[in-house]
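Supplementary Methods S3. Complex input for the thiamine diphosphate-bound model.
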Amino acid sequence: MAKLKKGSVNRRDFLAGAAAGTAALQWGPLGLNGQATQERQSAPLPSASQIAADSMAPAPRGEVYTTDRPGSDFMVDVIKSLGFEYIAANPGSDFRGLHESVINYGGNQNPEFLTCCHEESSVAMAHGYAKIEGKPMMIMAHGTVGLQHASMAIYNAFADRVPVYIVTGNIMDVAFRRNVAEWAHSVQDVAAMVRGYTKWDDAPVTLSNFAESAARAYKIAMTPAMGPVLIVADAVLQEEPVPQADRRKFLPPKLTLPSPPVGDPAAIDEVARMLVGAENPVILAGRAARTPNGLKLLVELAETLQAPVQEGSHRFRMNFPTRHPLYEGGSIGTADLILGLEVPDFWHMTHAQTPINRMGMSIRPTTKQGAKLVTISASELPSKSNYQDFGHDAEADLAIPADAEATLPALIEATKRLLTSERRRTFEERGKKLAQASERTRDRILDQAAWGWDLSPISTARLSAELWNQLKDEDWSLVSDVIFLSAWPTRLWNFDKHYQYIGGSGAYGIGYGAPAAVGAALANRKHGRLSVNIQCDGDLNYAPAVLWTAAHHRIPLLTVMHNNRAYHQERMYVQDMAARAERGIDRANIGTSITDPNIDYATLAKAYGMYSAGPISNPNDLGPAIQRAIEVVKRGEPALIDVLTQPR
Ligand SMILES: Cc1ncc(C[n+]2csc(CCOP(=O)(O)OP(=O)(O)O)c2C)c(N)n1
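Predicted complex, serialized as structure tokens:
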């Protein structure tokens, strides 16, 4: 029997006893076999140098790093040439070379590394940023595991037609995989798991190939219909010195953005003819305005025709000024022509689908008989089949697969060419009626907003009105969706600039809201805008540590919790099912409430290093709390107020 070393027995004794809660010497890996137990206990403890090797940074591999620059430096040259301001990432060893080059060789500027606590947050931050800035942010994700975390946010960006630039690492050459973790994180085809919802990907095998593919990916991401792209930065390419052969070929890529696809001139003339001839046209805007110019063009088209612009209940973009007399006027039911501009699932705007108790669905058109349907949408250009975000066929009478914003100038021109003085007079009359109807709608909205004014929990209309009261004289930007707030902000506030609204997630993947708001606020920061996020509680709980990212990077953002203490959207579905089954709705809170214990969001925000207040349940306390938080945000920091709210 091997003799036990004195010190080691005591330590192992102690550890085994603590773990098992029993006398350690009686328990060994082979059960109660004394010999095995004692042999195991007598195994030598790791030496000081072994412990150091496990817990300290490895020594630099001098033969590589001192002979010449690593390939990742050249990758940074390429990345810089594409004009990225930021890289959002959670660190991962398969892009450690690139990470080191970004912060040291690249000086951590253009791009600057943003520390993220979850890859889903990295992508959603890039999503929100692109909606304000009009260009992609780069994100890095650890091949396999990091990309798996990122995947839902990538799908959101894909469905929302938003460019996100993803770089993942991977170690293709097995000889370079240092340990079991690096085997687990390596993959034959990195992009396979997200290929169904990325626009393009590549895994370049040389640095010059990386340069070309990096530029190609950027162009593809930015060509409407825009979308996320993925480039694999192989770890060996990152970490090894640039090969001589590659050095001769290496040139930073030339980046010329393609012009967006414009509709066929003959088809545009036909749409203009239909628009000018229609008595009651309605323009439906989905993701029509990609840029501030898109908003101006849409106003010009609508005013030329004195035609109303509607957005439907899902507001995807800032398309049209919300106090314009043509906003949300007219009716689909009486329209003789409906022009859909980048409308996702146009079919649902022109059909009603109602569940009938235990009898399936009733489907009927909501348009009048003979109404003509026209679509202009870049979403009809690229086609992927697995994910079904494309919706029903629009059943349009005329479909133009092209970018709506880029097609609008030609459409406006063609429309103006067809105007006669008689049609102008008709349009003026139509415009007057729509303006009067708009006044009446506005009065009705104000009346409705006053309902439940003093309620506690606070009504979503009161929350929106209190915010507006303090934002109206600021240069503000709402960096969250309005759909779970009964659209009160877009009904009450005066939105007239493109950056004032970013819309929803695209694929309705919850967890997008908080990080997208942080990314959009980051884009707003250099413009000095006051960013406001009305934040659903369920959404924040997917990856709340993005609050830390906002605090750490000093991103000014006012977050106001719409804390209804529920997954309310899903509760309504469960209530619907229970009612259809005639079993009563009183248990629909099971699985859908976020109570017992209540989550203290003010404490959560404080823990992440952020100013916070709340929970606020008295509506009269809300105004002063918002004011105090705005002062903090104006100092350049994020702040959060927890507000207890009505469900919708
Ligand atoms: C990733 C993901 N998981 C689950 C859902 C289903 N879902 C849709 S809405 C919703 C409730 C979200 O709660 P919250 O953000 O608090 O909004 P509320 O409906 O309460 O206003 C859930 C869970 C989803 N869309 N996405």
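Residues 152, 484, 508-511, 536-539, 564, 566-570 surround thiamine diphosphate (CB under 6 Å). The chain is about 40% helix and 15% strand.
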